[in-house]
Amino acid sequence: MRADLRTRFLVIGSGAGGSVVAYHLARHGEPTVLLERGKWVRPEDMTHDEPEMIARIYKDGGAQTNSEADMFVLQGQCVGGSTVLTNAVCFRMPEPVRRAFEYEGFELPRDDLDRSYRRVESVLNVHPLEESVDNAGAARLRRGMRALGIEPGRFDKAMLHCIGCGYCNVGCRYGRKLDASMTWVPMAQNRGCEILTEAEAIRIETSRGAVTAVLCRDLRDGSRFRIRADRYVLAGGAINSPELLLRSGIRKDCAGTRTSFNAGAIMFAEFDEQLNAFDGDQMCVHHLADGFAIEQIHNPPVSFALTMPGWFDAHHHAMEGYTRMTAAGVLVPTEPVGRVYLGLGHRLVRPLFDHADIRFRLTSRDLANFRNGFKTLARIFLAAGARRVLPPFARSLEIRTEADLAAIDAAIVDQKSLVGFGSSHPQGGCPAGGNPRRDVVGNDFRVHGIANLFVVDASVFPRSVEVNPMLPIMAVADHAVRSIGGFEPEDEIREGPAWEARVRAAAAVAAN
Ligand SMILES: Cc1cc2nc3c(=O)[nH]c(=O)nc-3n(C[C@H](O)[C@H](O)[C@H](O)COP(=O)(O)OP(=O)(O)OC[C@H]3O[C@@H](n4cnc5c(N)ncnc54)[C@H](O)[C@@H]3O)c2cc1C
Ligand code: SF4
């Protein structure tokens, strides 16, 4: 049972957005509490048991879907949030996207953002992935891309001394991934920030245009307590932040609107030779195209099987080729037509179904991008010498020659056509912009109409950022500190050596 608390800043959510803000506030000497629903799972407590780890660090044990249950939406629920689940892929927000955000009314001055990127990248040790940890599928994809005149991209990653174990999505038990639980959160703690884990914000209480307290539940025993602060920062992620606003009756007119995703599904290719592509980093190669991205993703066995199309014998037969296969996803930045809302399930059976609903359907433009993306990827696999390509379609299809590609158009009718369709990159729901009637937060990240409440996470993006969002969210959070804290973040962050010690400690434990 926890007692009521009083602080100057309360940050709700310890993921990409919240952890960066909490660090800067604490470093500036501000009394800060960082509230996190999940547990702090340390590298030494992580394993390569996929079902066990997914149950421990994913929201809803990895089972969050849209209301029609034809799309999964993956998010983290642990200290460090979804960053703990990442492949540590780092992209800056493309300049056309920054301009498109500006067009929507969300202003992110380029020079300020560049300064924020430099700070964030130095903490995350962002660098091109070392070739030494490439998996064998990467060479096949590169060969296929080059044969088609496409220059393959090498990912930048937030890692230190990665050994390419291939299990990034269940957390790094070797402590080599520089996610928020390895960087910003312990850095904030070292600067005096109080980290409250297994504690959930359940209602934001307001009076006369300001937040007076946040009602919280201690998830260890179900008891309730309140945190009072001068300023509140909501950073629960693209589904949870609008949900908490809606539950609290704040901006009910537009909270939960303009939800978008980088959404996708995985295509498999089987080769004649043994690849053992599970041995190495899961994501080594990419290609960013107009309307879609191709990103290699070679999953460990359970996740590989879960996304493999086919039933019973067909599925079994396909999985027999595991050691000769590699895989890549087609990722489409969807239009912002989704909605997070408190649906009938929430109102009628709340104790059982204590969640917001997610409504999302792919538009015809999104579907066209998927058709182009899967045709391009199938061509790449064929050019790389694949014996057969297995697309993730409900209609069973095998591609062996260029002539088979025409069937892809007819196979993708709507999102139910895609097997294993989903997203690890939900965005929007609290869109930022200067229009108080349409946007939830202003350009200073303050909720329109609430003097002391800010939102800083993926939910503020008014449309998809088009690339993997972790780094852009962290940079935007770094930029937001000016408005939230009223000070300029320190230019240089020199807390890096602490990683070396943590990585060495985690490596020593993993070796035993
Ligand atoms: C499997 C997977 C792989 C990914 N790989 C990459 C990658 O390689 N590169 C990349 O750029 N992006 C990647 N992403 C996406 C990236 O991790 C997210 O976009 C980013 O972390 C979102 O940041 P956020 O601050 O919005 O939310 P999150 O990082 O999700 O953090 C939100 C936190 O708030 C907590 N919270 C929510 N509500 C409450 C509440 N009411 N009370 C208390 N706590 C609460 C949650 O438990 C969570 O810990 C991946 C995501 C997943 C799921
Ligand atoms: S060692 Fe490398 S590949 Fe393995 S989980 Fe850690 S960061 Fe990912």
Summarize the structure.
This protein has 14 helices and 21 strands.
Describe the structure.
- It is a single chain.
- The protein is an alpha/beta fold.
- The chain has one domain (5-511): FAD/NAD(P)-binding domain (3-Layer(bba) Sandwich).
- Helices cover 29% and strands 20% of the residues.
- The strands form five sheets. Strands 4, 6, 13, 14, 15, 16, 19 and 20 form an eight-stranded mixed β-sheet that branches. A five-stranded parallel β-sheet has the order 8-3-2-12-21, with helices on one face. Strands 1-11-10-9 form a four-stranded mixed β-sheet.
- The mean pLDDT is 94.
- The protein binds flavin-adenine dinucleotide (FAD) and iron/sulfur cluster (SF4).
- Iron/sulfur cluster binds next to loops.
- Flavin-adenine dinucleotide is lined by residues 12-18, 35-38, 74-77, 81-83, 85-89, 169, 200-201, 235-238, 240, 244, 424-425, 457-458, 468-471, 473.
CATH top level is Alpha Beta
- What's the gyration radius in Å? 22 Å
Small molecules bound: flavin-adenine dinucleotide, iron/sulfur cluster
Q: What is the helical fraction, as a range of percent?
A: 25-40%
Indicate the mean pLDDT.
Answer: 94
**Which parts are unreliable, with pLDDT below 50 for 5 consecutive residues or more?**
none
Report the β-strand fraction as a percent range.
15-25%
Tell me how many strands there are: 21
Termini separation (Å)? 36 Å
Class inferred from helices and paired strands: alpha/beta
Largest sheet: 8 strands, mixed
Summary keywords:
14 helices; 21 strands; alpha/beta; 512 residues; binds flavin-adenine dinucleotide; 8-stranded mixed β-sheet; binds iron/sulfur cluster; 5-stranded parallel β-sheet; FAD/NAD(P)-binding domain
